[in-house]
Amino acid sequence: xxxxxxxWSTADYVRLEEKYGARIYAPLDIVIERASGxxxxxxxxxxxxxxxxxxxxxxxGHSHPKLLRAAHEQLEKVTLTSRAFRNAELPGFxxxxxxxxxxxxxxxxNTGAEAVETAIKAARKWGYxxxxxxxxxxxIIVCSNNFHGRTIAVVxxxxxxxxxxxxxPFAPGFRMVPFGDVEALQQAITPNTVGFxxxxxQGEGGVIVPPDGYLQxxxxxxxQNKILLIADEIQVGLGRTGYRLAVEHEGxxxxxVILGKSLGGGIVPLSAVLADRNVLGLFNPGDxxxxxxxxxxxxxxxxxxxxxxxxxxxxxxxxxxxxxxxxELRNMQAPLIRDIRGRGLMIGIELSESARPYCEELASEGVxxxxxxxxxxxxxxxxxxxxxQLSWLTERVHKVLTM
Length: 403
Ligand SMILES: *Cc1c(COP(=O)(O)O)cnc(C)c1O
What we know:
CATH topology of the largest domain: Aspartate Aminotransferase, domain 2
Shape: globular
Bound molecules: pyridoxal-5'-phosphate
Number of domains: 2
Structural class: alpha/beta
Helix content: 25-40%
Radius of gyration: 21 Å
CATH superfamily of the largest domain: Type I PLP-dependent aspartate aminotransferase-like (Major domain)
Strand order of the largest sheet: 4-10-9-8-7-5-6
Order of helices and strands: HHEEEHHHEHEHHEHEHEEEHHHEEHEEEH
Number of strands: 15
CATH architecture of the largest domain: 3-Layer(aba) Sandwich
Number of helices: 15
Strand content: 15-25%
């Protein structure tokens, strides 16, 4: 097949994929062949500014030389040992991960959803073994409009009908409260509550920023009620909002932090749960696992990602570019715009109608982004995006929204 592919048009690739692939996405019909930095190139030689960044899995852009080097070097050594044996990359990765974020222990997994499931297991285990909740009674409070992934337990705690339809029955043990509402959280707490799982900013939910003070207040409520505060930082963590973790905006320290997406540098699936020994120390051999967890290739790439995350000027850069972009966007006059919100380089433009046709128009203008929650244009370029590219982006967005 590879010999026939040269000379294929976009339509040829689309046809083949539609014929053989289960249709779980509705992608824009841009067939990407290569990418570098903030730019991706399609099979017909067009180039686009990537303003999705793999749903924030590519915070450092495409083909970052330091990440590629780490991956190449490790590819030549060893890629998978399974955790039946130890490997020489994992200990350093775990230590650097804990030091970077200030936690005592880390549990590596692969995808985000798996890390969320892992955090749920950890919180329940803590509930039974430390808090003293009766067997099988543990409850975890989640937020409406959440997105935590696509496994059965995780979609079961979603409020999104499309994520759940015809996939039940679901796991019990979850309660839901409105996002941003501290009182509702307080009222939902019972003696069986073991954790509160939330996104510091809801990404898939439409870039929903909670009211000021919310993060600190939920931290306080959790402390007072002996409940674990569990932050899903998979999308908003790792520099996206101008902080290592989005909760740092309010100086909050969750009991459990869930990382994914950019942790693997857009090269490998790599996720992790971070916590102190009082929680993650409860796991014993045989309690949990994954064939690929902690594999040396992912650990090597993860270490290189952590090095990039430990460059302090990253955060001032993101805050500055985010502020510039936000201001430029807010200065646009376009009657379609209902709201512009976000933090750092995570920006949502809410329109008064479906955002999809505008994403398609933007693509023909050389900008790739994707609608979320139907009416929201999410703008999340790589953190390494240049200022001139942001002005160019604003011009394109303005053009498309006022056409
Ligand atoms: C993407 C995402 C997940 C799921 O991660 P996968 O790697 O797709 O399983 C979970 N939570 C949040 C907030 C996400 O954005």
